[in-house]
Amino acid sequence: MSSIKQKILNNGNVIPTVGLGVYETDPKKCTDLVYEALKVGYRHVDSASIYKNEQEVCDGISKWLKEDSSHKREDVFYTTKLWDADHGYEPAKKAIKLMLEKAKDIGYIDLILIHTPKTSYKKRHGAWKALEEAYEAGTVKNIGISNYGIKHVKEVLAYPDLKVVPAINQVEIHPWLGRKDLVEFCRQNKITPEAYSPLVRGQKMTDPLLLSLAKKYNKSAGQILIRWSLEEGFITLPKTETMSRLAENFDVFDFELSPEDIKTLSDLDEYYISGWDPTIYPLDDEK
């Protein structure tokens, strides 16, 4: 039975394989949601500066940590992301400082990602330099990228002053959007692929194949999708604002899909985008 709940990144650090995504989560609900998620068993929360709920996520983590002396900071993995408006070396340094101020009660940030590649070479490069400095200072334990296509990843790897290879590339991945070429390229370069929107924002929950598998395994459709993501080796970030679904989405370590069922799901791939697709953003020539 596959019950791996952590993966090792390219720098030797570990990351929990199932995280709670908090995109569009109301800040007023976010602290309690994160706290309840940690009580359920989650040890990974994924936010972003553009979500406007970083402080509330950190407050939820802090509340859980203070509740019991057995709760350790190193057991929780907190991710946030640098938005496009903060690309560039100096803007990124200021944004990272603000992120760290919001996280002061929990001490440090486990992972900061560049949220999208939708700016310019100069700005992306400057942002990466700022992230490398935060990583070297130890206030940010891991750094990575998000929504980067192969051409964007190649750009990072070709930086003449590159010191740190991204640990993560977080992109939308699910059975209807397998991104096989991108996933393979990242893995060849020791960059771990992380899957957001593994539940396809609820847009495929009535798919007949998915429903038949849910019945076969006596699991929910969401659990089947999260399990597929884990079986395919991804770190996966299901999102819910419903307290009752927190436990359901995390209860995915007591079964595994057969190889045939994994392939059948993977064969649904049709490059289906449930939200947006910055991976196709064109590169500019400015250096």
UniProtKB/TrEMBL annotation:
Keywords: Oxidoreductase. The record marks 81 as: Lowers pKa of active site Tyr. The active site is at 51 (proton donor). One of its GO terms (molecular function) is oxidoreductase activity, acting on the CH-OH group of donors, NAD or NADP as acceptor. Pfam families: Aldo_ket_red. Belongs to the aldo/keto reductase family. This is NADP-dependent oxidoreductase domain-containing protein. It comes from Ogataea philodendri.
